Amino acid sequence: MEKNTYAVIGSGAIGGYYGARLHHSGHNVHFLFNTDYQFVCENGLKVDSHYGDFSISADQLNAYDSSQSIPKVDVVLVALKTTQNGLLETLIRPLLKPKTLVVLLQNGIGAEQDLSAKLGLKHIAGGLCFICSNKIGPGHINHIDYGRLTLGVYGESGLPALNDVANDFRESGVEVDVENSIMDARWKKLLWNVPFNGLSSVLDTDTAQMMSCPEMAQLAKAIMLEVRQAAQATGSELELSLIDTMLTNTAKMKPYLTSMLLDKRNNREMELQYMYKNVLDIAAEKGVAMPKTEALYQQLSFINRLDVR
Questions:
Q1: 189 included as an active-site residue
Q2: Residue ranges of domains in the chain, CATH in brackets
Q3: Which segments constitute the Ketopantoate reductase N-terminal domain (predicted)?
Q4: Which of 206, 272, 306, 308 could connect to 255 by a Cys-Cys bridge, CB 3.0–4.6 Å?
């Protein structure tokens, strides 16, 4: 049986890491680059990983600066920030076969619904990346910790194709869980992302510094409880014990600069729509109050306007 072919849209800290894993297990992977394109064509892609460093040499790397040049593939992995989702329809459409599976490796909630409507897809998959990974230079990724993926499908069927993708990742050395509902999986990730991405950006600090302050850990927990209440109002049951587990794991992990904090420090737009605004809108529709989350969103909105000027 032939292996799935892949296209990676957004070959940075997330897409570059997972795409390189698939490449090293024998899959034909095509990487879309933006500013790093010329560099990787000459130097290849390098991953420093706590599981062991690895790389793809320039002559082995399928690098592109336009999705129009990439052949049609079996699976499209989208690892762009949600702030660029307005580009996805144009980027993805040239890559689609009749049965191509699109997998959104993105934060937040609501992106699957938006993109499946634009592309007319019966189903679309989402992936939650439980990973600490940063891009530290052109074509250079630093994988600090973790790496587990949680995958799920939105829409009709699609689960057999997603199970195939999950097996591809497992063969590539990536731990994978497959959820029946991508919405349940997204709420689980939001449980961590909403407090820690936002608070780290407002405070301009890493996760270790935050967890070393009992009052800040308590605030993070209070925000997590609000997110859990919103999730429950939509039918996604999150175990209460999951909050303490996440807090314990965050306290143990290596100091980590969240993706939102890095966006702030680099004067890039932060992912507020899918990670905060959509969550607050859903909660409001369900009659759930999220005062601490809303206050955090308001502060982030102010910072965002300053940073993207």
A1: yes
A2: 5-180 (3.40.50.720), 185-307 (1.10.1040.10)
A3: 6-154
A4: 206
